[in-house]
Structure formats: structure tokens, C-alpha cells
Amino acid sequence: MLPTPFQLLGPPIAATLAACVLALLIWLSREHNAANHMLAATLLIGAAWTSLSVVERLMPTAAQALVLDNIQFLTMDMVPVTVIVFSLAYAGRLPERRRGLLLLLLWPLLSQALVWTDPLHGLVRVEPVFLAGGGVSMLSYEFGIAALLIIMVDLVLLLAALSILGSHMVTINRRLRMRVLPLAIPILFLFIAAMLSMTGVFMPHQRDPSAYILLALAGGVALHLYTTQDTAIVPRSRALILDALTDGLIVVNRSGLILDINRSAVRTFGVDEKAVLGQPVTVLHPSLAGVLGGSRVSMLQMSDTAIFNVRTVPLPGTEGSAIHLHDVTLLEQAERALRESEERYRTLVEQAPTAIAIHDGERFIYANPAMARLLGSESPAALLGKPVRDLRAPGTDLSLLLQGAATPTEQQVSLRTLTGRTIRAEVTAVPLAYQGQPAVQIVAHDVTERVRAAEALRTSEKRQRRLLALISDHAYSVRLLPDGTHELDWQTAEPFKRLTGYDYSYLVDNPSVQWIHPDDHPRVTEDYERALRGEQTETEYRLVTRSGELRWVHVIRRPVWDEEEGRDVRLDGVLQDITERKRAEEDLRRSEERFRTVSDIMSEYAYSVIVKEDGSIELDWYTEESYKRLTGYDLRKVITGEMQPVHVGDRDRSHEDFRRALRGEPHEGEYRMFDREGTERWLLLKRQPIWDEQEGRVVRVNGVALDITERKRAEEQLQRLNEELEERVTKRTAELEAAYREMRRLSELKDEFVANVSHELRTPITNIKLYLHLLQANPDKAAQYLQVLERETHRLHTDVEDLLLITRIDQNRLLFQMQCFDLNRLVQDHITDRIALASQRKRHLSVGLGTTVGDVEADPALVEKVLSILLSNALDYTREGDRIIVQTFSAEGGVGLRVSDTGPGIPESDRERIFRRFVRGSLPQQQAISGTGIGLSIAKTIAEGHGGRITCSQTPGGGATFELWLPQSAGRDNPNA
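User: That's the sequence. What structure does it adopt?
Assistant: C-alpha cells below.
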């Protein structure tokens, strides 16, 4: 049966209008947050759902009705999504990162994919029927499995929203719970309608409940707005109260999201109110993250001058919290000034040499180090809690110490220290408040020694001692300003006047007055500037008083660091008169100087040890300066075994000799020891035991030592010289024997050389004479004979030149004509002249020139002489058909030439010997090859004269290779020297 027009248009139109009006009211409210947005979105989506159901019934065709019905599925699936987001925001459980909520949108998209593809699979609608009549139409169908799945998922989302609101209602109070109920009932109605639709109560007959659901939702929202005036935690009336507060106030939910902020907080953080609502509270200040989670107080530093006290208070009946900010800048500044004042006072009291303590009437509650020293306490802390009455000495009235006097009065009393010693002290006691409790401050000066001295002086001198008793240390404080300047804050004027005779104001008005000794003035100025730069200084210098007296003072300066300002803000200083101590030190120095003079005259040191009954020893005295000058050690540490300067080889003997002295045997011994510099020294040590007849044992051992290092060194040097003399005689004898053998060898070589030279000279001369005779007998063969005569003449000339060159070398008259030339060109020209000779002797001569070989600075004639010697040897010692290769190369910062052949080679045993004069290898002797044995020695001399070298090695595959290497520039500054 089709619905009537009133049934069709009445409820949907009323529900749509109500939902749109409520959504507009929510949007126009001044509370823009996620809960409001989702509530308005739910109303608008519900209005769209209801409007689509009306339009669907006015469609003339089934296809158009199906399109609108598909869109209704989208609006139906969007409602649970917005409802669950609203529930999370309203309950304060909305996550800070909201990207995960976007996954909820996948569900409506998936549902639409199933609905729009229903004609392909038929899982949503079962046998849909289109009914029309009287201008009204209706789709009638049963739900398929996909439609039931869609309704079931929507049902789960609605159930989750109900659970969130239900748990929120449990945690809030009853009044707020009644405000949440109007929102929960429509969602429950949606849940029930979804269950009824799934069971077939509505949808199979197309009795669409959307209008009634929307009306229920609109009614619940209207009732909620009527009862709470808003959907946020804070009511509208907060504008009249919170915005008038001078303190900042921020309302956040359990997740730390800002729900409200008053104008004072907006001004404090300098933000836009609407921009921060719904944002994490950390956008205002990062440190606000640490004040959530309970009722506690913390400090917030907004700038160098603005400080706030922050307190977080949970809001009863909600899951929100209020953050309260109170400006405490002025209070902090006042407390800082107080702390600076207390720090100055504490610094001066701790550094003051005057004893200061505070007690509560019975026991000490504070004491500075000077008071602890005065009363014989290990430390100020050990003095705390001690009864003040324990200081009373016999006949002493402690009423002033216990009660104090309103007017500071100095009184001299006898006090008994914690160690039981009785001292005299000048005491001033003043009542004051300490840590909020009544107390008495005691200032004391130890005058025991002065009192004892006063008792031995005449009455007139007592008045003078009384005057001296008034002398106290001078203290001052300088304020360090941010601009680098400084000014005097305060100073103890009277003590300064007593110390120097000057008023401090007089010195300020007369800066030319030299009250600091001129020799100490630069050091005082430097130390004062160091203190201004932040260094704690301690120095001693001399003052010239107004009467012209010279007095010594000990000055301590200490800068005071301020953590907040990050700089030194104050310089405190104290002065102590140490004139008497300096005079005593000067007397002691003079005495020590006399003792040192006597000790310097003596070369030994002396000592004395006490032998106790248990056999242990204790150092009584020793000449410290002499011992330290001799060894560099402290004899006390040597006696206790902390240091072992005695040589390890003499240590056992030294210990045994000392034990003999302990047994009563006087003795002396020589020992080695190492001083602090590690130098070995010899000591002659004499020990004399002192026997006590009454005790029947050795009670003391005296010892003296004599430095015998020089004597020992002389003995060792004499022994060493004797050994060296014996060694030199042995070595010289061996050298003479070797020289004799070498002379015999040279004599044999010389005889062999003379024979070889005679043969070498005789052979060409004989050939010349022979061919001259043949030339005279057969003039027609002149060309052939002249060629032989030329070769023999050249051979004779070469031998003579070699002999002359050897003579110049022996007489050190070999001159080097250094010039820069192209090594490749010299080799190429020399080889060109020798190719015909090599071909005549049936040898294959080739040349390989290096492309990177540059010019060389050398004697070209001598270099060519070496090349001639090497090439002549290669031609003489190779066989017919052998190859001879001449190459140039560059290596190791120089250039060189290489002559290699494929001949029989040179045995390894002969490769070093062949460069000696008159030495010939075994192969020429075996093959009866003529030669003098001086060519390679000449080549080596020429190479070394250039700063180069010549080597011999085996050619790969057989043969010999000679290499001449010359530096790129001259090998020495003057090779002719």
C-alpha cells in the first residue's frame, strides 16, 4: 500500500528543517571544536538521508529510484562514522594524530562499491519491485547478504559510539550525566532502528524510518542545547568571569587538547584564540606538556623577565583539566635579590678569618670554618648540635654568649675547646632571627697568645696590646655591572684605617697617594684585573702606611657567579695582616741561607734515625737541602720505602749493611743510586750505631754520605781506556795484517798489470812495425795496411789514455767539465760510429732511446768514456751472432744508460770484484782475452765523481747488463774538489 502525501511529506520535511536549523545554530556558536563539527555534520547527513527518501518516492522510473536509493546507502553509512567521531571528541578521547580516523571513510566507500555493482552480483537487493500510482512511487525489495552486512557494520559502529558515551557518563557527575543522556538516546534509537531493519521490520515494505530517526536525533540535540547551552565542557558564562581574570586560564581535555582559553592567557602567549582551540596545549609552550596529569605546581620561564607559576587542576565531574598561570615575575626578582644578599653574606662569612657561629640558645646551628678551627672541631658540620655550655671554662660567665646583647658589646672570656684546651677569646654576641627562629650570633677572635704575652708585659704595654687587639681584617665587595664597569658596594672602613692609617675616601679623592709598594703595584693591578675576569686570586703584597711603615697583607679575591645572568655579578675580597709572619719567614730564610751556604761547602749529607723497641725506625732529622741537591728525592719517602733510588744491583747489599748497623756494627759501603734525573751516582755511606747501655740495644743510627761519583767515573774511565787500548791494539794488528795481505795482493795484481800492459802495448807496436814493413814491401795494398795501422794506432792510443787517466785519478787531478747536454744525442752519435765495427765483428748492435730522458748536467767526454768502456767490453766478451743493446732511461730523479748483451755473462762472484783496479774476471782469463783490468774501475770513478753509480747484473736469458745512473743535476756542488 502506497503512503499518502501527508505521510510522505510531513515527517521528512519537519525532520529536515529541524536538523538544518539545529546544525546552523551549532555552527554559529562560539565554541568551534571537533564535537560541535561532528554533531552538525550528523544532523546535515541525516537531513540529506531523509530528503533523498522523499525525492526517491517522486521518481517516475525504477532506474532513477535505484540511483537515489544507492545514494541513501551512502548517507546511511556516513551517519555512524560521524557519530563515532563525535563521541570520541565529546568524551575527550580524540587522538592527537587524526590520520587514523580517515580509515573510517573507507567503510562508506566500500559500501558504495557493493551497492553500485549490485546489478552484477545481486547481493544487496533481492527481487526489487517498482510500485507507482497517484504521483507516488516506491521501491520494494528484501535485503541481500551484502545489505545485511552493511547494516551489521553500521550497527557495530553505533554500538562503539554508545560504549564511548556510556563510559564517559560513568566518569562524570550526575548533573552532567543528565546532559549527555539526550545525545545518547538518539544514537540508541539509531542502533535499535538498524537492528529492526536487519530483522525485516521496516525495510522489506519500504517503511523508511529515517525521518523518525532524524526527528529523534534533532529532539535530543535540542534538549541537550537547552540544558547545557553548548556541547563543550565550559559554559557560555565563562566569558563574563574568565576573561576578566588577570591570571591565565586554559581548559584542556584528557588528551591535552585546548577546549578553552581566556584573554589573559591569549595575551601571555601572544596567540590567536580561534587558531589554538582544538590544538595540543604544547603549541602554546613546549614545557606545558609536563604539567598535565595531576594537581601540581611548576615554573614557566616565558622570557628573561617573565616568570609564571603554573598549576594544573582536574575539573570535577569531567575528564578535563584547568591550567592556571600566575605571574610571579616581581616575586622572583625580589627573591633573587635576597639570594644575592645572602650569598654575599655567606661568602664573606665563610672566607672571613674571624670565627662566627649561631646557636639557638642551647646548641650550635651554624659555624664558619674559622669558628671550627678556633674550637678544635674537625669541620663546621662536626660542631653543629654541640651544646654551647660545653665551652664554659672554670670561672667563666657565658651569659653574654647564651643570651647576646642588643647593643654589640665585645667581651674577653675564657673558653674550653672540644679538645680540652683553654683559650682566651674576644667575643661579641648579638640576638637575631635565623630561619624564622630566635637565635644568637657569636663573633670571636682568638687572643690567647696575645693575652699570654700581655701577662709578662708592664701595665703601660697592656694599653698598647689592647689597641692591637682592635685590629681586624679588612673586607670589601665590588659590584660588577653588565657594561663591564665596576663600583664599590661596601667595605669595612675602620679596620682599613687601622691597617693603613688612611681613610678610604681620602685615597679615592687623592689617587696619587702611593699606599701600595711601587714594586708590588703592577702585580696587584694584574691580580685585580684577573679577579674581574672571573678568576679567584690569592696574593701577598706590601702596603706603605700613612706613617711610612711597610706592612705585608694576604689578599683573597673571589668572584661571585650568577647562574641566571650568566656572568660574575660581584667581587668579594678580604685582607689579612701577615707582617709578623713575613718577618718570621725572613728570619727563617736567613737562617736557612746560612745553613745552605754551609751545606753547599760540604759535599756529603748527614741524617739520624731513631730505632724503636719493636725494631722499626723513624727519621729524626737530615740535611734536607744537601740530600735533595745530591739526589733530588725526599729522604722520608726513601726511609718508608715509597721510593727506591738505590741501584737494584746494590739494593740487597745496602739493606743488609743497614741491618748490620741496627745490630750495632759500624761500617761503610759504596753503593750506586739514581737521582731524580735518572743519572747514576756513587755514594760512600758511613753508618755509626749509637748503643744505649741502660736499654741494652741500638737506639739511634747516624749516617753521613760522600758523593764519590767523579772518583768512580775516573776509575771506570781508566778501566774503559785500558779496554779500549787493548781493543785498539788488537784491531790495529788485524788492520796491519789485512793491509799486508792487501799489499801483497796489489803487488801481485801490479805485476800482472805490468805484464798485461806490456803485452797490450807490445802487441799494437809489433803490429804497427809489421804492417809498416808490409806497406813498404807492397805499396799496392796500402789501403788495406793503412786500415790495420789505424786500428792498432787507435788501440795503442786508447791504452795510453787509460794509463794517463789512472794516473790523474791517483793524483786527484781528474777534472770534470760540467755542462748540460742531451744524453740521447750523445749515445746516438757514439753508437753510429760503432755500428760498422760491430758488424765487422759479426755482432748485432742496436740502440733504444727513452722518450722521457731529458738533459743531464755532467762532463760529456767522461760520460762518453764510460759508454766506450762498456761498449768495448761488450764487443770483446761476446761471441759471433750475440746481440748488444744500448738504452737510455730516466728513474729516481735522474737519467742513465744501459748496455746489455746476450753473451756468456759474468759470474755472481765476479760482479763486485770487476770494478776494482787491475781485477779481471775469471772468464777473460779462461778465454785468454787481452785487457788491463782498469776500464771498469775508471768507469766507477767517473760515475761516483758525478754523484751517480754504476752496477752490473745478469741479463734475463743470459748475458751481462751494466747500468750507469746520473742525477738530473750535478751530484755535488764541485765534483772537481
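The radius of gyration is 59 Å.
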